[in-house]
Design brief:
The chain is α/β, with parallel strands linked by helices. 35% of the residues lie in helices and 26% in strands. The chain has helices at 14-26, 46-61, 85-91, 93-100, 162-165, 167-182; strands at 7-11, 31-35, 65-74, 81-82, 106-116, 121-132, 147-149. Strands 1, 2, 3, 4, 5, 6 and 7 form a seven-stranded mixed beta sheet that branches. Helix 1 crosses helix 6. The longest helix is centred in the first third of the chain and has 16 residues, at 46-61. The radius of gyration is 16 Å and the shape is globular. The two termini are 21 Å apart. It binds inosinic acid. The site of inosinic acid has 15 residues, from strand 3 and helix 3.
Amino acid sequence: MQQSYDVLFASSNKYKYQEASTILAEFGIKLGFFNCKLLEIQSDSIKKIALHKVTDAFNQCKKPVIVEDDGLFIDSLGGFPGPFSSYVFKTIGNNGILQLVNKKRTANFQSVIAYCDKKQLALFDIKVKGKISEKIHGKGWGYDPIFIPQGQKKTYALLKNKNKISHRYLALRKFSNWFVRRQ
Ligand code: IMP
């Protein structure tokens, strides 16, 4: 059977996959979904976490694969939740974050795309500056209802063009420039 994708996206998060697939289609890259659980090491570096995850993903699927690791870094909280963003979202959620953030609301969303095939490992990272909203605005997934990217007035959840400006978009654009040139 002919392979119907150019690269796999390893994750158990279907929202991330759907966004990544829409974004990469714009660059002519077909993304397959490798729905799996990946080993996530404890580290304060999302680059290190992404490298471990992509190596684990490649060992499982043996195909060209990418993983994404993200973190929301809030300046007044010393970068918290950062690499623990997923756990913190599951435990205290957006309401908990809003209770912790006071006057200084600046934050950034970071994304790392890690690529692995049998010959190569590569990393593509990006940081999007912004701030934490005063209240929950909109119904998007994860931190979308509380993150306002710099230069915008609305949260990711309310922005129609999130997929054209987000940390995911910018990191995937970096990856696709490299991937397309290399093919
Ligand atoms: P991880 O990369 O799966 O560890 O993700 C970190 C966490 O950040 C996710 O579980 C989400 O809660 C959150 N996150 C990552 N990207 C986004 C996004 O685009 N919107 C909202 N939340 C996000």
